[in-house]
Each structure stands twice: as C-alpha cells, then as structure tokens.
Design a protein that fits this description.
Blueprint (H helix, E strand, L loop, with lengths): L5 E6 L1 E5 L3 E7 L10 E9 L9 E6 L2 E9 L1 E6 L4 E4 L4 E5 L4 E8 L6 E9 L10 E5 L6 E3 L5 E6 L1 E2 L2 E2 L10 E7 L4 E5 L5 E14 L20 E5 L3 E5 L4 E18 L7 E3 L2 E3 L2 H13 L8
Antiparallel strand pairs: 1-21, 2-3, 3-4, 4-11, 5-10, 6-9, 6-11, 7-8, 7-10, 9-12, 13-14, 14-17, 15-16, 17-22, 18-22, 19-20, 19-21, 19-22, 23-24
Length: 303
Amino acid sequence: MSIRPVVSQTQAQPTLEGAGVKLHRGFGFHDPKAHDPFLLFDDFRGEVPEDYINGFPWHPHRGIETITYVLEGTVEHGDSLGNAGTLGAGDIQWMTAGSGIMHQEMPTGNAKGQMHGFQLWGNLPSSLKMTDPRYQDIPSMEIPEVVDDDGTIVRVVAGEFWGKTGPVDGIAADPQYLDVTIPAGVKKTFRIDTYRRAFAYVFQGAAAFADASRPSGVLLEKEVMGQEVNIRDMSGNRTVVRFGSGDEVTVQAGEEGVRFLLISGAPIEEPVAWHGPIVMNTPAELQQAMKDLRNGTFIKPAH
C-alpha cells in the first residue's frame, strides 16, 4: 500500500456564472490535464436569494457530463429533450450531454434562504462525444450511506466503497464519488484504485491529509494525534486537495471534524478543445459545434 502524495492544496476562487450566480470555482478553464477526466468543479453556496436566484438559464452542452449534487435548497432543471424535474437536498443529477443538449438549472433556497450545491464536469472520450444525451436523476434516499463504528459517515454516490455501490452507473470516467464526514480527532484511510486520478474538496470543518513526502516550504501539522511527520497543513473550508499516484488517502479530522468530497476517475488522456460548456477533441470539432449552434442542428432529433 502506498499513500498518495498531496500534489497541491488550493482555495476555490469566487466567480460569477450563469445569470450572475455567486459561486466558488475549485478548478476549471485552465490545464485540462491536471484533473483529467474532470474538467471543472464549482461550489455554489449562498445565504441570500440575491446571490443565486437568477440561476443558470438555457445554455448548451456537448462532449461532457455534468454532475450536480444538492445539499440545501432545490434546483429546478429542464432540457431541450423535454426532461424536467426538481433536485432537493441530498439529490444527484448526472447528465450525459453527449452529442448536444440545451439545459437550464434554476436554484431556490430553503426556508432560511440558503442554497448549497456542487457541479462537477466530467470529460467524455472521443468515442462517446456524440453519444445520445441521457439523465440520471437520483433521489437522496437511493444513495447508500455507510456509518463506521468511529462515527465516520460516507455517502456513496458513484463507484464501490465499503461493500456499497453508488446508484450512478455507466459513466465514462469510471468515477468514485464519495461524500465523507469524519468526527473530530478521527483518522481514516480510504482506498482508491491506482489507475484513478483523485482530489478532495473540503467544505466543512478542517482536516490534515497525510503525505508521502515532505515538499519544501510545507509546514507540518505537529499536534494531530501525536503525528509529527508527513501530515500536511490543515485544509479548511473550500480547499481543493489534489493527490498524486498511490492507492490510499489518509486524513486526520480537526477538532471540529470535517466533511469533504473524495472524487476520483480514470484519466481519458486525449486532446481537449474547449469553449465554455462545449468540450471536443480538436479545433475543427469545436468549430463544427459552434456552427451547429448557429444553424439549429446542435440537437439531434428525438428518436
């Protein structure tokens, strides 16, 4: 067994998206190789409706999959194929845009006006760029949850973990998508297949992630369960932790506990031609997609 080294720890950055939604972007629109097969990760979180109520009106997608996970509030969604619905707290939508779809997502806060959710973009390989679009809407009650003796809770959205299999299936990235809550002072190790690339997103509390090395300039956390070596700085709210190669991730929860997403997938390792919500392999394919948008052939006729 080998611990995955911590390649980087970065803070999600505030940005505006859609029709003026205030959110924090963990990564996206930079080096697509860094998180391959994932392209973008957003944390949309607001305490007042003015921060998110204008939502994400009609926009196109082609060549990717979008994964929306709602924690608070609701998100009403619809598409050009006639699909429509509402995601509530704990629900997941995994949309395969494939050959092309027009889509909208309109968030509404809970009774206190709070809204919180995440959106992750997964790339599609060239062989599936033009596949038929499809939805997987998963209600919260269908997501298996595992509770360990030490109080650790893991929701298994996709992939296999501790004998449970997430309800999302048939995804090109072969993902493992976990929502992990670890109580204060607890140290846990999670197995991740070596062929997957992995990152964690800390969004509540704080934790220290064990490292396989001591990169220069990185302070070590010396007061966590007596561990004096190979423990990175405490990662807190809105921290993206990117891991290198290995088969284990070890994390030590801080004094208030921690909640984070642990996401991994099989790299696609293909060229990326990217413009907004359209991701193809070549500039020519990207130009064709834009032409299809202009001339009304972006969406395949329904079968």
